[in-house]
Inverse folding.
């Protein structure tokens, strides 16, 4: 292994996010890998801990969800930063499952109402009006997950249930909220044939870009506005991106001004940014929004020069100055040129025209095997975790 893996406190719970546990020093890491994405920055990853003690299994099940994960090399450079999104902790016949996938601690309900409501006012006679209710974890109990884990919303579309009262909408949201707050499981196996493997822990880690799919934004941009301003305002307005740094120095001026979401639709922040970027391409060049180390937001205009070089007779990768770059520091979003001594280099001013160049859409790095893979775009596969999360998000949109 080339990296040191450490757990830090959730920055929502403790803004300083101090060290919680040095995994590399105190645990037997049997699995350690992560991905990077051109659209997103740090992506999914996984960590496996073998020969865990029963105490460590219980701590993982009880405390590790949403802990910050940082992997650094010997020079102190951050190769990966994300958070624990799922905990699968096994101790004998007990298996503890914790996940942020189906979890939510704030609920919105969109519903139809009619008549007069003390909070909503009066709906015109004979008409059906649309309303929205917001319910918090405090409405259904004394849970403090918003303080400990952060806010994760779910939106219910209750309009198909016909005309209902605001109280009925609140009750339906409360019932749903009670379920999402307890989105966890305990898998017990007993009796003849029940397996009892040694204590072990498997962690699913996500990059902080994933948290932009947890809150909605309805920012209206009715006049032509610089894209940088739109993105920065969307990230800061109503505090819908609390996990990201307030340092927006890596959001450059693009020279593109657009109008966007003039109707004020509520969009998941991730979708809001992606759709805004799709409406603006400086000089017909693709834009990437990414979240890298320090949980800082980056806005990248597709580069015209190669960022990486490779050779078929060399297992190393080289940067733009032909210096060797560690495999764990290779990131998606730049172009890689496959060059060999027997191939004449393409002399195009824009890398997109080179025959032996390709955009790095994603990378996967396995720190146990010390192996880097850069698959072609056609091989990009949606992980089961992300697929389920997307399906759930579409159901509650």
């Amino acid at each position: 292994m080339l990296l040191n893996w450490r757990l830090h406190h959730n920055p929502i719970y403790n803004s300083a996010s101090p060290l919680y546990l040095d995994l590399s020093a105190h645990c037997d890491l049997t699995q350690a890998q992560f991905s990077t994405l051109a659209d997103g920055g740090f992506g999914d990853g996984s960590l496996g801990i073998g020969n865990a003690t029963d105490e460590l299994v219980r701590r993982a099940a009880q405390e590790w969800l949403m802990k910050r994960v940082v992997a650094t090399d010997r020079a102190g450079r951050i190769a990966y930063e994300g958070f624990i999104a799922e905990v699968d902790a096994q101790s004998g016949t007990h298996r503890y499952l914790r996940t942020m996938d189906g979890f939510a601690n704030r609920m919105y309900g969109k519903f139809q109402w009619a008549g007069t409501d003390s909070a909503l006012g009066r709906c015109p006679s004979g008409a059906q009006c649309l309303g929205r209710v917001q319910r918090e974890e405090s409405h259904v109990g004394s849970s403090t997950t918003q303080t400990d884990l952060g806010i994760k919303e779910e939106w219910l579309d209750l309009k198909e249930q016909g005309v209902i009262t605001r109280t009925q909408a609140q009750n339906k949201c409360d019932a749903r909220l009670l379920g999402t707050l307890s989105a966890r499981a305990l898998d017990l196996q007993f009796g003849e044939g029940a397996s009892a493997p040694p204590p072990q822990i498997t962690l699913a880690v996500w990059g902080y870009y994933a948290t932009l799919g947890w809150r909605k934004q309805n920012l209206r941009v009715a006049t032509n506005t610089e894209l940088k301003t739109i993105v920065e305002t969307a990230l800061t307005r109503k505090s819908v991106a609390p996990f990201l740094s307030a340092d927006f120095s890596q959001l450059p001026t693009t020279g593109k001004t657009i109008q966007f979401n003039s109707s004020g639709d509520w969009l998941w922040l991730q979708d809001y940014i992606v759709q805004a970027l799709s409406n603006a391409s400086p000089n017909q060049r693709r834009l990437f929004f990414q979240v890298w180390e320090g949980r800082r937001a980056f806005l990248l205009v597709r580069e015209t020069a190669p960022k990486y070089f490779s050779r078929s007779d060399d297992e190393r990768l080289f940067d733009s100055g032909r210096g060797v770059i560690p495999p764990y520091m290779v990131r998606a979003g730049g172009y890689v040129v496959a060059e060999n001594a027997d191939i004449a280099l393409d002399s195009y001013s824009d890398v997109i025209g080179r025959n032996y160049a390709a955009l790095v859409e994603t990378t996967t790095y396995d720190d146990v095997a010390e192996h880097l893979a850069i698959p072609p775009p056609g091989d990009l596969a949606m992980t089961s975790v992300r697929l389920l999360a997307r399906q759930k998000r579409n159901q509650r949109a």
In short: The longest strand covers residues 78-91.
